């Protein structure tokens, strides 16, 4: 589990057919093989590490569901170690289970911030609400507004300076994870409605 607060922006050292080698410093202080780490919001397992780099495996399903396949040597990536039990949750609960790779539509300056509009797949629309949480490239963000096929976020200067979101442009693909709590609520309500419909139909059929 992660909090969506990026600890370091690492750099891709090399891309392999089944993994990534990433240069880093801060996150390597207490990391070990088999530990989980979020790379651009994707939960991956450390398979090797040295003083200034670590390696993670990338399964075919991971490459299908994320934008990691578009990375190249030198690409910046957001890094976050798994959340310590005694740590503060500065963002929200992030699993690192990417649901879609979505494209940036537009970017507009808004005072000191940037208003960024991002495409939203129809299947994820029920889980995204204004002022709710969302994770993009592993960064915990607040949804500003939601439309039928897109949503918007506001990037403050600190986020642009300390994550790779500062380099996004129209067309940039971002790894998206919706709020797990919202997904559970929607699923619960759907199941409740389904059960209620079954009970209603059953009651009507039993009437004389």
UniProtKB/TrEMBL annotation:
GO terms for molecular function: riboflavin synthase activity. InterPro entries: ATP_synth_asu-like_sf (IPR023366), Lumazine-bd (IPR001783), Lumazine-bd_dom (IPR026017), Riboflavin_synthase-like_b-brl (IPR017938). Pathway: Cofactor biosynthesis; riboflavin biosynthesis; riboflavin from 2-hydroxy-3-oxobutyl phosphate and 5-amino-6-(D-ribitylamino)uracil: step 2/2. Keywords: Repeat, Riboflavin biosynthesis, Transferase. It catalyses: 2 6,7-dimethyl-8-(1-D-ribityl)lumazine + H(+) = 5-amino-6-(D-ribitylamino)uracil + riboflavin. SUPFAM superfamilies: Riboflavin synthase domain-like. Lumazine-binding repeats lie at residues 1-92, 93-189. Residues 1-92, 93-189 form the Lumazine-binding domain. One of its GO terms (biological process) is riboflavin biosynthetic process. Its EC number is 2.5.1.9. It comes from the Bacteria. Catalyzes the dismutation of two molecules of 6,7-dimethyl-8-ribityllumazine, resulting in the formation of riboflavin and 5-amino-6-(D-ribitylamino)uracil. This is Riboflavin synthase. It comes from Ktedonosporobacter rubrisoli.
């Amino acid at each position: 589990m992660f909090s969506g607060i990026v600890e370091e922006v690492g750099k891709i050292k090399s891309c392999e057919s089944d993994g990534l080698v990433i240069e880093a410093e801060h996150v390597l202080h207490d990391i070990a093989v088999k530990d989980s780490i979020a790379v651009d919001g994707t939960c991956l397992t450390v398979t090797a590490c040295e003083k200034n780099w670590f390696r993670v495996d990338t399964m075919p399903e991971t490459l299908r569901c994320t934008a990691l396949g578009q990375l190249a040597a030198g690409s910046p990536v957001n890094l976050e170690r798994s959340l310590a039990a005694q740590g503060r949750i500065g963002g929200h609960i992030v699993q690192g289970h990417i649901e879609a790779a979505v494209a940036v539509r537009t970017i507009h300056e808004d005072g000191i911030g940037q208003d960024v509009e991002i495409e939203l797949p129809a299947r994820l629309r029920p889980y995204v609400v204004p002022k709710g949480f969302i994770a993009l490239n592993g960064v915990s963000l607040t949804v500003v507004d939601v439309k039928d096929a897109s949503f918007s976020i506001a990037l403050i200067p600190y986020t642009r300076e300390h994550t790779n979101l500062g380099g996004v442009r129209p067309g940039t693909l971002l790894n998206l994870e919706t709020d797990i709590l919202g997904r559970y609520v929607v699923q619960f309500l759907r199941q409740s409605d389904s059960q209620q419909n079954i009970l209603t139909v059953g009651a009507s059929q039993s009437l004389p």
